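Students often ask why we bother encoding 3D structure as a string. The short answer is that it lets us treat folding as translation between two languages. Here is a chain of 243 residues written in the first language.
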Amino acid sequence: MKAVLLAGGKGTRLKPSTKIVNKHLLPVYSDQGAVPMIFYPISTLIRSGATDILIISSKDHSGSIIQNLGDGHDFGADFTYKIQDVNRVSLGIASALKLAKSFTGDQPFAVILGDNFYEDSFEEQFHLFPDSCPRSARIFVKEVDDPRRFGVYSDGEIVEKPENPKSRMAVTGLYLYHHGVYEIAEALNPSGRGELEITDVNNAYCKAGAMDIGVVDGFWSDMGTPGSMKRTQDFISFRSYHI
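And here it is in the second language, the structure alphabet:
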């Protein structure tokens, strides 16, 4: 399966660190040293069997990401790069996703956010997805203590950062799609934030009864805030986790 890793955004919640360094290159510290954040979602994809990876980043930071990652040889993978130029295209995860169309073609593919850490690998889910969900999408959810920070799945719908969550099942930053997702993304209107939202893409599948739900069993965390980055670092150190 091909995969798309989204590493754009401004990293505003991690300022002032991200004023000079792309969020996804920030070091994640542990007892074993420091590893750039983006290495962890790359590891998740490779452990799950996706080694042909498109990395989408912003115009300002693409050079430093390419310099750090190279062509993928050191990871046992093949990396392709594309730039999300905010002067030419809309903002948002769904907007970045549209840039992957020529890379994925008519094949099913995985999408992962560049600030997400997963203890689990998903080789079986990736392998079975094309045949088990031929016209569907799949999201991966995890029960969390602070659901108001996330998109929350409940009763066949995803609500983004709800004030009064109906469940504690957060939608994590890993998705599986077929090529039909591009038609959905093209039809989106910008949200109140002026962005094309991945939640709107996923809710289109939910409304059509075409969303498959996977559950993350192991540890999961985003690393988009100082608190969540520390939480991830604490887990890595406590478990002596290695990529």
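Translate back mentally: The chain has one domain: 2-239. Keep this in mind for the problem set.
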